[in-house]
Each structure stands twice: as structure tokens, then as C-alpha cells.
Design a protein that fits this description.
mainly alpha; MetI-like fold; 2 domains; 79% helix; 0% strand; globular; transmembrane helix
Length: 298
């Protein structure tokens, strides 16, 4: 009996030693990444939080004054409204459109690979080239206005009017549709065909199959695409900035514009407070996405 206990203790010690050694090995390989994240992400962000409570000029603690200042700033409020409008338009539109295209492509037998490459092609085009193309098309003297003039229709100022917002929406969807379609297709290929066969035997139609089989199985994909689309939507600033500059039309004046302008004018305290608020909104939205995803899975 005593020998059995000794053997058991030896086994437990061995497994603990093995577990600790594996943890140390993992930590050794992760150390460079953890160090890089700490130096370039965590420490700077903690410093940003600290700066948001101080005056940049005299280093005096001002509490929430910087937050009150930006929340009362008309340009900031306008940028927030435009950003929310852009997100509320683009993300649902992109999700629905790419899902429909993916379903069509999933059933497609011929030229499937060619179509995939065609949809992914916009991702490989540099932003500068896209901007040149949009300027050629939508400029006051661009290709579209030349065609309109040919049909005796007056020129439309696309870039410096409210229509610039829809150009930005089109740019975002055109640029990101291919990537989202690949994610949808990955989710669709992961659904067991036997579910559809069993549903067909039970007399289920296409709509019933989509609602009771396809959609529930795509919930993790919907969550992932939603989060990635949300993050990618903030990258559209490059196009807006290169097309219209620091101060574009009011309809496309985004959060990134005002942060960029504050950076140029060295309004560090305002920029820090805005960055902290933006990060809080990011975290809340991602948590809500995750909570919704978990609720739907249950």
C-alpha cells in the first residue's frame, strides 16, 4: 500500500515537473512577442490614459476636463456622428451583400476559382492606385462627368458634396467584399451536407434550410466577420484623406480626421482623451458582439 502511494507521488511530481518545464518553454518562445507588445502597445496605451488626465502644456492634473472638452467640441461630435453613420451603413450592407454572393458562389459549379480571385483582386490594389482611379472617375472633370456632359446633364461635384459619403461606402465594400466572402465560404464548407440531405427528406425548402441549418451554423462566422468589418472600417480613412485632404466634405469628416488634425496641432491631451473613449467604445461593442454570439449559440 505504501509503495503504491510512493509511486503515485512520484507520478504526480513528474507530471508537475513536465507541466512546469513545458510552461517555461512556451514562455521562452513567447517572450519576444510579449516584450514587443508591452513596449509598443501596452506601455504607450497606459501613457495615453495618463496624459488624458493632464494638461499637455504645464503637466497639471485636470481630472476629466479633457473629456468634457472633447465631448463639447462640435468637430468631434460631427466626426462621431459621421463615423457611426458610416459603420451603421457599411457593416450591415457588407454582411448581407457578401453572404448573398457567397451563397451564389457556393452553388456555382463553373469558374468558381476565377470568381474568387476576381472578388479578391481589389485587396491587392494599393490604396494610392485606388485613389487615382476614384479621382479619374468622380472628379468634377472626371470620366463620369464627361459622360454626363455628353448626354447634356450638368456636372455633379461628387467629392465635395454629400455624395462623397456614398463614394466612401462603395470604396469600403468594393475593397473588403472579397475577404469577407472567403470567410463566409469557409463557414459554408464547414456545414455537414448530411443536415441538408435530412432536411430534404423531411420536405424542407430552401428558405427553411437556410433559416434552420445554414444561419445557425454560420453564427461564429457572423461574429468574426462583424468584428473584422468593424476594425477594417476604420482603415477607410486613408482613402478619404488622400481624396479630400485634412478637411473633407462634412459628410466624410471621420474620427480619424479629427485625431489626425489634433496630432498635427499637438493637442495631445484632447487626442489622448479621444483615444481612450474610442478604445472603450471598441471594447463595449466587441463584448456586445461576443455576448450576442454566445446567446444565439445557446
Amino acid at each position: 500500500m505504501l509503495s503504491k502511494l510512493k509511486i503515485k507521488n512520484i507520478h504526480l511530481r513528474y507530471f508537475r515537473y513536465k507541466k512546469n518545464s513545458e510552461f517555461k518553454k512556451a514562455l521562452f518562445f513567447l517572450a519576444p512577442s510579449l516584450l514587443g507588445i508591452s513596449i509598443f502597445v501596452l506601455i504607450p496605451f497606459v501613457d495615453v490614459i495618463r496624459r488624458s488626465f493632464f494638461d499637455a502644456m504645464n503637466k497639471k492634473y485636470v481630472g476629466l476636463s479633457n473629456y468634457y472638452s472633447i465631448l463639447g467640441n462640435e468637430a468631434f461630435i460631427k466626426a462621431v456622428k459621421n463615423t457611426v453613420r458610416f459603420l451603421g451603413t457599411c457593416i450591415p450592407l457588407l454582411l448581407v451583400l457578401t453572404l448573398l454572393l457567397s451563397l451564389l458562389l457556393y452553388k456555382q459549379k463553373k469558374h468558381k476559382e476565377f470568381l474568387k480571385i476576381s472578388f479578391l483582386l481589389p485587396m491587392s490594389i494599393p490604396v494610392a492606385s485606388v485613389v487615382v482611379l476614384w479621382k479619374l472617375l468622380f472628379h468634377e472633370n472626371g470620366l463620369i462627368n464627361v459622360l454626363l456632359h455628353h448626354f447634356h446633364i450638368s456636372n455633379i461635384n461628387f467629392i465635395n458634396s454629400g455624395k462623397a459619403f456614398y463614394i466612401l461606402v462603395f470604396t469600403y465594400i468594393w475593397k473588403n467584399a472579397g475577404y469577407d466572402m472567403i470567410l463566409w465560404l469557409t463557414g459554408l464548407y464547414g456545414i455537414d451536407e448530411s443536415y441538408y440531405e435530412a432536411a430534404s427528406v423531411d420536405g424542407a425548402g430552401r428558405v427553411a434550410k437556410f433559416y434552420y441549418i445554414t444561419l445557425p451554423n454560420l453564427l461564429p462566422t457572423i461574429f468574426m466577420i462583424g468584428v473584422l468589418s468593424f476594425i477594417n472600417s476604420f482603415k477607410v480613412f486613408r482613402e478619404a484623406y488622400l481624396i479630400a485632404g485634412d478637411y473633407p466634405n462634412n459628410s466624410i469628416y471621420m474620427l480619424q480626421h479629427i485625431l489626425n488634425n489634433w496630432f498635427v496641432s499637438l493637442d495631445i491631451q484632447k487626442m489622448s482623451a479621444a483615444a481612450v473613449l474610442t478604445m472603450l467604445v471598441f471594447l463595449i461593442l466587441i463584448l456586445l458582439f461576443k455576448l450576442l454570439d454566445k446567446t444565439q449559440e445557446e
